[in-house]
Specification:
Oligomer: single chain
CATH architecture of the domain at 570-745: Sandwich
Helix content: 25-40%
Distance between the termini: 68 Å
Number of helices: 27
Shape: globular
Radius of gyration: 27 Å
Structural class: alpha/beta
């Protein structure tokens, strides 16, 4: 058997956050991901000299890194970090309490006792910063300034830097001098990132690729009507003018900047959001790009469904996916590779909950299985398996920042004779594509369409505001506005064309900073008018995002008359709160569907009630995926976990482990030890077409007004296979006995 060509392709990207007219920068993500993920991902590759992969560095990220390292750049978070803790203004102190816990609670806050202590003192989600401030001494505030930066240092940094390791071990009572030392260390790490990537490329381990400069959706710049290839009934913005010259400029600038920074032109490209179309092939080829990558669903749509998956996610003709293809426009052509979305999503969303070593071995086993399934159909050419995902966003959900997983994966991949880690460009030069795509379908890496960026009225409002600013720019000549200001105004337009602003409009994605993203998009448009010496239209002062970050799930509207029997009895759940899987997506999106599709949640007067729906019938779906355990982990009350086993039986076994002082004594198992109470007869479960569960509120130590925060997780052979929600929690407040009367009056 020929070795499988394993093509990891890490996409490193941040939108352009600074306001170049004022020097302000509200977001710290370039800096914080820099000391954690951009340094760390490069360091992992350095550790395994035999390993090869591809890294995509978006110009808008690189420009901001250079601002920090060469231009004295800062951000609001860094400015407040530098301020003496005993001299903070009230506004700065409340900003500190509102923004300095922006880290994953389980993997980045809880492991550090002092950071976790401060987190508990803050009572995030319960108290406002105003009300919490009186509980924080200057010592507390200074330690929070330190830990909010220290938690974003990559774990390997503490292995290789003894001073940094000793600094972390101190844990608390840091001085202003200590804090200044850490921020200087942070700056030193940021300065290493670009040289590390330059050395990896020069040494042949990494192929560096690029993306159109400010990460725009090229097909929509070219022709917004292309959205209708995948969505024929999609409503479009009022203005449909082509901005193809802007698309070409994003491409030209990206290639020129990459060559200036790394000494050679990029051969490959990840088009922003994997967005492609037949119409843009020539423009990409014209700037010297030889190959591009996008999602497998684009190949499915471009080949009339010849490449597709069945209802269980299995490839019908796997050999067609795991090879390169040619897309051409006249005499201009590009080689293309297509991401395996299933393998990519395993890393991005699933393996974070598994044993790290077992997860890495599972990934390698799947890759070897693909090689075995495709070898005979590939005509003697090696199978190419592209795994493509963000290189920064998933690791904060791994218990050790992904260190054990990546180390195991890279070392084993380089060691095994059955797998050959490759740079994509190298593979394509040795084994060029021979299969032709007749017409490249217009779409992105999410659902092979552009719905995220043009499918909602908020998106279309943003496009029309951008159009108005662009029209104003076109009317201005250099004899009316100095050339340098005119050039800067065009740059502000190119920044506003980035995909990230449109990502947060509409209902699909959301974050606590939606309004800030909205304001920054409108600020870039306002800057255009300011640079032209003209007043900005009044509508740029009005938020485009109307509803802010939408609730992840609905809330119950009445008590639920549920009989726990595993049957989908309609009226029982009509008043329940409902969570749809995937609705909490933020900077990442999972394109493969998990086992859990929907959760209903609520109460009657004495019980907490939960229902889980799967793709078809829950019992059969659980059996097919060999699910042997379902767990509900409560973040609040802390330390409580509900376990349901025997899921192939009609009446699964329900147990509850907790250390809660006020639980009904009759439910206690007196033989349990280690300070943990094992509760018996606390609930009941049933599985049939749906999974249903009830738990006595007394078993949860819950009374009216108590808050329950939890997530649902399913396990197969001891390994987590799905979780809902994937990164956050569901939240309910236990209602009073007159809940229904209150709701009726409302």
């Amino acid at each position: 058997m020929q070795p499988v060509s394993l093509a990891f392709f890490w996409h490193q990207h941040q939108p352009y956050y600074p306001n170049d007219l004022t020097g302000e920068n509200e977001f710290p993500w370039v800096r914080l991901h820099g000391t954690k993920d951009y340094w760390g991902m490069a360091r992992h590759i350095q550790e395994v000299p035999e390993f090869r992969c591809t890294i995509n560095l978006v110009p808008s990220l690189l420009v901001q890194l250079l601002k920090y390292t060469d231009g004295g750049g800062s951000d609001r978070h860094l400015d407040v970090s530098r301020m003496p803790a005993d001299g903070l203004s009230h506004a700065d102190a409340t900003y500190l309490l509102d923004h300095f816990f922006m880290a994953n609670g389980e993997s980045m806050i809880r492991p550090s006792p002092r950071y976790h202590e401060l987190f508990l003192k803050r009572k995030v989600g319960t108290d406002s910063a105003e009300s919490a401030l009186s509980r924080f001494s200057p010592r507390d505030l200074r330690d929070l300034q330190v830990w909010s930066n220290l938690a974003w240092m990559h774990p390997i940094l503490f292995e290789v830097d003894t001073d940094l390791r000793a600094f972390r071990l101190k844990g608390q009572s840091y001085s202003e001098a200590d804090k200044a030392w850490l921020l200087d260390k942070q700056a030193e790490v940021l300065k290493l990132i670009i040289p590390m990537h330059r050395e990896l490329a020069k040494g042949g381990q990494v192929e560096l690729t690029t993306t159109p400069f400010y990460h725009p959706i090229l097909p929509l710049l070219w022709d917004k009507r292309l959205a209708r290839q995948a969505m024929p009934d999609c409503e479009l913005p009022k203005h449909l003018d082509s901005y193809r010259e802007d698309a070409v400029e994003h491409l030209r600038r990206a290639v020129a900047f990459h060559e200036q920074l790394f000494g050679e032109k990029p051969r490959g490209m990840w088009p922003s959001e994997g967005s492609v179309a037949q119409e843009i092939i020539g423009a990409i080829a014209d700037v010297g790009i030889e190959w591009i990558a996008t999602d497998e669903e684009i190949l499915v749509a471009s080949t009339g469904g010849r490449v597709s998956r069945d209802s269980h996610g299995h490839q019908r003709h796997p050999e067609l996916l795991y090879r390169p293809w040619l897309a051409a426009d006249g005499d201009k052509q590009l080689q293309m590779v297509f991401r395996d979305k299933g393998l990519s999503d395993l890393i991005g969303f699933q393996y974070q909950r598994a044993d790290d070593v077992l997860a890495a071995m599972d990934m390698l086993g799947r890759i070897e299985a693909i090689g075995q399934a495709t070898e005979s159909a590939n005509g003697g050419r090696p199978t190419l398996v592209p795994i493509i995902l963000d290189g920064e966003n998933c690791w904060e959900y791994y218990r050790d920042g992904g260190v054990t997983f990546l180390r195991t994966l890279y070392h084993e991949a380089a060691r095994r004779g059955s797998i050959n880690p490759v740079r994509i460009g190298d593979h394509l030069r040795e084994h060029p594509a021979t299969d032709h795509i007749d017409r490249l379908f217009a779409g992105s890496w999410i659902s092979h369409n552009f719905a995220i960026w043009i499918g909602h009225h908020e998106d279309r409002t943003a496009w029309d505001l951008l159009h108005d600013a662009r029209e104003q720019l076109k009317r201005v000549t250099s004899d009316k506005v100095p050339p340098d200001k005119l050039a800067q105004a065009w740059q502000e337009l190119f920044i506003a064309e980035g995909s990230d602003w449109f990502w947060w409009y509409g209902p699909e994605f959301g974050s606590a900073q939606d309004k800030l993203f909205d304001r920054l998009f409108r600020t870039h448009l306002q800057n255009i008018y300011s640079l032209l010496g003209e007043p900005a239209p009044a509508n740029l002062n009005e938020p485009i995002k109307r509803n802010g970050h939408r609730r992840m799930h609905t809330l119950p509207s009445g008590f639920l008359p549920v009989k726990v029997d595993g049957r989908a009895t309609f009226f029982e759940w009509t008043s329940a709160g409902v969570y749809e899987a995937g609705s909490e997506r933020g900077t990442m999106a999972q394109t493969t569907e998990g086992l859990i599709r929907r959760i209903h949640l609520g109460f009657d007067k004495t019980r907490f009630l939960l229902r889980v729906d799967t793709a078809s019938r829950a019992r059969e779906d659980f059996q097919r995926q060999e699910i042997d355990e379902l767990r509900i982990r409560f973040v609040e009350p802390e330390g409580l976990e509900l376990t349901v086993s025997g899921l192939t039986d009609e009446s699964p076994t329900v147990t509850l482990n907790a250390d809660l002082p006020n639980v009904d004594r009759s439910l206690r198992d007196r033989n349990s030890g280690h300070g943990v109470t094992r509760l018996l007869s606390a609930g009941e479960a049933a599985i049939g077409p749906i999974f249903e569960l009830s738990v006595q509120l007394t078993a949860l130590d819950a009374e009216p007004g108590s808050v329950l925060k939890f997530f649902v997780e399913v396990f197969s052979h001891g390994q987590s296979t799905d979780r809902a929600p994937r990164e956050t929690t569901l939240e309910l407040t236990v209602p009073p006995p007159d809940f229904e009367q209150i709701m009726w009056q409302v």
